[in-house]
Amino acid sequence: MEPLLEVKNLLMAFGGLLAIDGLDLTVNENEIVALIGPNGAGKTTLFNCITGIHKPTGGDIFINISNKKHYRINGLKPHKITESGMARTFQNIRLFPNMTVLENVMIGRHCRSHAGVAGAVLRNGKTRKEEKNIVEYCYNLLEKIELDPFVNEQAKNLPYGVQRRLEIVRAMATDPFLLLLDEPAAGMNNQETKELDALINKIRDEENIAILLIEHDMKLVMSLAEKIVVMDYGKKIAQGTPEEIKSNPVVIKAYLGEEDDT
Prior knowledge:
Elements: E1 5-14, E2 17-27, E3 32-36, H1 43-50, E4 58-65, E5 68-72, H2 78-84, E6 86-88, H3 101-109, H4 116-122, H5 125-144, H6 160-172, E7 178-182, H7 190-207, E8 210-214, H8 218-224, E9 227-232, E10 235-240, H9 242-246, H10 249-256
Parallel strand pairs: 3-8, 3-9, 6-7, 7-8
Antiparallel strand pairs: 1-2, 1-4, 4-5, 9-10
Protein backbone atom coordinates (compact mmCIF):
# COMPACT_ATOMS: atom_id res chain seq x y z
CA MET A 1 0.00 0.00 0.00
CA GLU A 2 1.34 3.44 -0.97
CA PRO A 3 1.57 6.16 1.69
CA LEU A 4 -1.16 8.79 1.98
CA LEU A 5 1.49 11.51 1.97
CA GLU A 6 4.91 11.23 0.39
CA VAL A 7 7.53 13.99 0.54
CA LYS A 8 10.57 13.37 -1.68
CA ASN A 9 13.89 15.28 -1.56
CA LEU A 10 12.09 18.49 -0.57
CA LEU A 11 13.97 21.80 -0.74
CA MET A 12 12.79 25.18 0.53
CA ALA A 13 15.12 28.16 0.26
CA PHE A 14 14.56 31.72 1.43
CA GLY A 15 17.21 33.74 -0.30
CA GLY A 16 20.49 32.16 0.76
CA LEU A 17 18.93 30.21 3.63
CA LEU A 18 18.05 26.57 2.95
CA ALA A 19 15.24 25.95 5.46
CA ILE A 20 14.41 22.45 4.14
CA ASP A 21 17.31 20.46 2.74
CA GLY A 22 16.51 17.27 0.81
CA LEU A 23 13.89 15.96 3.22
CA ASP A 24 11.97 12.69 2.75
CA LEU A 25 8.87 11.82 4.78
CA THR A 26 5.88 9.49 4.50
CA VAL A 27 2.60 9.13 6.38
CA ASN A 28 0.64 5.92 5.93
CA GLU A 29 -3.06 5.24 6.30
CA ASN A 30 -4.27 5.50 9.94
CA GLU A 31 -0.75 6.32 11.12
CA ILE A 32 0.25 8.88 13.76
CA VAL A 33 3.59 10.45 12.87
CA ALA A 34 5.38 13.01 15.05
CA LEU A 35 7.80 15.56 13.66
CA ILE A 36 10.26 16.79 16.27
CA GLY A 37 13.41 18.85 16.44
CA PRO A 38 14.93 21.97 17.99
CA ASN A 39 13.41 25.39 17.35
CA GLY A 40 14.35 26.56 13.86
CA ALA A 41 14.78 23.03 12.52
CA GLY A 42 12.30 23.68 9.68
CA LYS A 43 9.25 21.81 11.00
CA THR A 44 6.64 24.52 10.45
CA THR A 45 8.25 25.42 7.11
CA LEU A 46 7.67 21.81 6.08
CA PHE A 47 4.01 22.07 7.10
CA ASN A 48 3.74 25.31 5.11
CA CYS A 49 5.13 23.56 2.02
CA ILE A 50 2.76 20.61 2.39
CA THR A 51 -0.28 22.85 2.83
CA GLY A 52 0.45 25.28 0.01
CA ILE A 53 1.53 28.34 2.01
CA HIS A 54 5.05 28.04 0.53
CA LYS A 55 5.87 26.72 -2.92
CA PRO A 56 8.86 24.38 -2.52
CA THR A 57 12.10 25.31 -4.25
CA GLY A 58 12.64 21.68 -5.25
CA GLY A 59 11.52 18.13 -4.67
CA ASP A 60 8.03 16.66 -4.74
CA ILE A 61 4.99 16.23 -2.52
CA PHE A 62 2.50 13.52 -3.44
CA ILE A 63 -0.79 12.40 -1.95
CA ASN A 64 -2.45 9.11 -2.72
CA ILE A 65 -6.24 9.18 -2.78
CA SER A 66 -8.69 6.73 -4.28
CA ASN A 67 -9.61 8.63 -7.44
CA LYS A 68 -6.24 10.36 -8.07
CA LYS A 69 -3.46 7.96 -7.27
CA HIS A 70 -0.05 9.58 -6.69
CA TYR A 71 -1.38 13.11 -7.06
CA ARG A 72 1.38 15.78 -7.07
CA ILE A 73 0.42 18.84 -5.02
CA ASN A 74 3.53 21.05 -5.31
CA GLY A 75 2.51 24.68 -5.62
CA LEU A 76 -1.25 24.19 -5.24
CA LYS A 77 -3.10 26.96 -3.40
CA PRO A 78 -3.99 26.26 0.25
CA HIS A 79 -7.72 25.94 -0.46
CA LYS A 80 -6.98 23.35 -3.14
CA ILE A 81 -4.82 21.40 -0.68
CA THR A 82 -7.72 21.43 1.79
CA GLU A 83 -10.13 20.27 -0.90
CA SER A 84 -7.74 17.44 -1.75
CA GLY A 85 -8.12 16.03 1.77
CA MET A 86 -5.53 17.59 4.08
CA ALA A 87 -6.29 20.06 6.86
CA ARG A 88 -4.12 21.75 9.47
CA THR A 89 -4.06 23.70 12.67
CA PHE A 90 -1.51 26.37 13.59
CA GLN A 91 0.77 27.10 16.55
CA ASN A 92 -1.30 30.16 17.42
CA ILE A 93 -5.06 29.80 17.82
CA ARG A 94 -6.87 31.11 14.73
CA LEU A 95 -10.51 30.81 15.70
CA PHE A 96 -13.09 33.48 14.91
CA PRO A 97 -13.45 34.79 18.47
CA ASN A 98 -16.83 36.50 18.12
CA MET A 99 -18.47 33.55 16.38
CA THR A 100 -20.04 30.60 18.17
CA VAL A 101 -18.47 27.17 18.40
CA LEU A 102 -20.95 25.87 15.80
CA GLU A 103 -20.28 28.76 13.43
CA ASN A 104 -16.52 28.17 13.62
CA VAL A 105 -16.98 24.53 12.65
CA MET A 106 -19.40 25.46 9.86
CA ILE A 107 -16.71 27.70 8.35
CA GLY A 108 -14.45 24.66 8.21
CA ARG A 109 -17.17 22.80 6.33
CA HIS A 110 -17.45 25.54 3.70
CA CYS A 111 -14.99 23.84 1.34
CA ARG A 112 -17.47 20.95 0.93
CA SER A 113 -20.47 23.15 0.08
CA HIS A 114 -21.88 23.52 -3.44
CA ALA A 115 -24.30 26.46 -3.26
CA GLY A 116 -21.97 29.05 -4.77
CA VAL A 117 -22.50 32.80 -4.83
CA ALA A 118 -25.85 32.67 -6.67
CA GLY A 119 -27.30 30.18 -4.22
CA ALA A 120 -26.13 32.22 -1.25
CA VAL A 121 -27.79 35.35 -2.65
CA LEU A 122 -31.02 33.78 -3.87
CA ARG A 123 -31.46 31.51 -0.85
CA ASN A 124 -33.28 28.89 -2.90
CA GLY A 125 -34.52 25.55 -1.58
CA LYS A 126 -31.35 23.73 -2.55
CA THR A 127 -29.22 26.24 -0.64
CA ARG A 128 -31.40 26.07 2.47
CA LYS A 129 -31.28 22.27 2.42
CA GLU A 130 -27.49 22.30 2.12
CA GLU A 131 -27.19 24.77 5.01
CA LYS A 132 -29.38 22.52 7.16
CA ASN A 133 -27.18 19.53 6.30
CA ILE A 134 -24.05 21.50 7.19
CA VAL A 135 -25.49 22.50 10.57
CA GLU A 136 -26.43 18.88 11.32
CA TYR A 137 -23.04 17.57 10.18
CA CYS A 138 -21.12 20.08 12.30
CA TYR A 139 -23.29 19.54 15.37
CA ASN A 140 -22.80 15.77 15.09
CA LEU A 141 -19.06 16.32 14.83
CA LEU A 142 -19.11 18.44 17.99
CA GLU A 143 -21.05 15.67 19.73
CA LYS A 144 -18.44 13.09 18.75
CA ILE A 145 -15.66 15.25 20.21
CA GLU A 146 -17.82 16.13 23.26
CA LEU A 147 -17.85 19.85 22.54
CA ASP A 148 -21.62 20.04 22.01
CA PRO A 149 -22.21 21.61 25.48
CA PHE A 150 -20.35 24.69 24.12
CA VAL A 151 -22.22 24.82 20.79
CA ASN A 152 -23.66 28.34 21.25
CA GLU A 153 -20.73 29.81 23.18
CA GLN A 154 -18.57 32.42 21.51
CA ALA A 155 -15.11 31.02 20.84
CA LYS A 156 -13.41 33.80 22.82
CA ASN A 157 -15.22 32.71 26.00
CA LEU A 158 -13.98 29.11 25.90
CA PRO A 159 -11.25 27.73 28.18
CA TYR A 160 -7.89 27.55 26.43
CA GLY A 161 -7.86 23.75 26.09
CA VAL A 162 -11.36 23.77 24.60
CA GLN A 163 -10.28 26.40 22.06
CA ARG A 164 -7.44 24.13 21.00
CA ARG A 165 -9.83 21.19 20.59
CA LEU A 166 -12.26 23.38 18.64
CA GLU A 167 -9.52 24.20 16.15
CA ILE A 168 -9.03 20.50 15.56
CA VAL A 169 -12.77 19.93 15.11
CA ARG A 170 -12.95 22.80 12.62
CA ALA A 171 -10.16 21.15 10.62
CA MET A 172 -12.02 17.83 10.80
CA ALA A 173 -15.09 19.50 9.27
CA THR A 174 -13.22 19.67 5.95
CA ASP A 175 -13.46 15.86 5.83
CA PRO A 176 -9.71 15.19 5.65
CA PHE A 177 -7.84 11.91 5.30
CA LEU A 178 -4.82 13.58 6.98
CA LEU A 179 -4.68 16.14 9.80
CA LEU A 180 -1.54 18.23 10.30
CA LEU A 181 -1.36 19.54 13.86
CA ASP A 182 1.24 22.23 14.59
CA GLU A 183 2.09 22.09 18.31
CA PRO A 184 -1.44 21.18 19.45
CA ALA A 185 -0.37 20.91 23.13
CA ALA A 186 1.29 24.33 23.27
CA GLY A 187 0.20 26.16 26.43
CA MET A 188 -1.83 23.26 27.79
CA ASN A 189 -1.72 22.03 31.37
CA ASN A 190 -1.26 18.34 32.21
CA GLN A 191 -4.98 17.53 32.26
CA GLU A 192 -5.60 19.27 28.95
CA THR A 193 -2.66 17.41 27.40
CA LYS A 194 -4.09 14.06 28.58
CA GLU A 195 -7.43 14.98 27.00
CA LEU A 196 -5.63 15.93 23.78
CA ASP A 197 -3.83 12.56 23.75
CA ALA A 198 -7.19 10.77 24.01
CA LEU A 199 -8.74 13.02 21.36
CA ILE A 200 -6.01 12.41 18.76
CA ASN A 201 -6.25 8.65 19.27
CA LYS A 202 -10.03 8.86 18.97
CA ILE A 203 -9.81 10.79 15.70
CA ARG A 204 -7.45 8.22 14.24
CA ASP A 205 -9.32 5.15 15.54
CA GLU A 206 -12.93 6.23 15.00
CA GLU A 207 -12.69 8.62 12.05
CA ASN A 208 -9.85 6.83 10.19
CA ILE A 209 -7.86 10.05 9.87
CA ALA A 210 -4.06 9.87 9.79
CA ILE A 211 -2.16 12.41 11.89
CA LEU A 212 1.10 14.29 11.31
CA LEU A 213 1.98 16.50 14.26
CA ILE A 214 4.73 18.86 15.32
CA GLU A 215 5.15 18.74 19.08
CA HIS A 216 7.68 19.69 21.76
CA ASP A 217 5.94 17.80 24.58
CA MET A 218 8.03 14.64 24.40
CA LYS A 219 5.81 12.74 26.84
CA LEU A 220 2.87 13.28 24.48
CA VAL A 221 4.98 12.38 21.44
CA MET A 222 6.18 9.13 22.99
CA SER A 223 2.62 8.24 24.00
CA LEU A 224 0.99 9.00 20.65
CA ALA A 225 3.37 8.41 17.78
CA GLU A 226 4.02 5.15 15.99
CA LYS A 227 6.75 6.83 13.96
CA ILE A 228 8.92 9.82 14.84
CA VAL A 229 10.85 11.91 12.33
CA VAL A 230 13.60 14.14 13.75
CA MET A 231 14.71 17.31 11.97
CA ASP A 232 17.68 19.61 12.55
CA TYR A 233 18.84 22.49 10.32
CA GLY A 234 16.30 21.52 7.65
CA LYS A 235 17.45 17.91 7.38
CA LYS A 236 16.00 14.64 8.60
CA ILE A 237 18.58 13.30 11.03
CA ALA A 238 16.67 10.28 12.35
CA GLN A 239 13.47 8.28 11.98
CA GLY A 240 12.07 5.39 13.97
CA THR A 241 9.77 4.18 16.71
CA PRO A 242 9.63 6.06 20.04
CA GLU A 243 11.92 3.45 21.59
CA GLU A 244 14.47 3.81 18.79
CA ILE A 245 14.39 7.61 18.84
CA LYS A 246 14.77 8.17 22.57
CA SER A 247 18.01 6.17 22.64
CA ASN A 248 19.42 7.50 19.36
CA PRO A 249 22.73 9.33 20.08
CA VAL A 250 22.28 11.65 17.06
CA VAL A 251 18.93 12.80 18.43
CA ILE A 252 20.31 13.23 21.93
CA LYS A 253 23.13 15.38 20.55
CA ALA A 254 20.73 17.57 18.54
CA TYR A 255 18.55 18.20 21.58
CA LEU A 256 21.16 18.40 24.31
CA GLY A 257 24.12 19.70 22.38
CA GLU A 258 26.52 17.00 23.50
CA GLU A 259 30.06 17.37 22.27
CA ASP A 260 31.41 14.87 19.78
CA ASP A 261 34.27 12.87 21.33
CA THR A 262 35.77 11.92 17.99
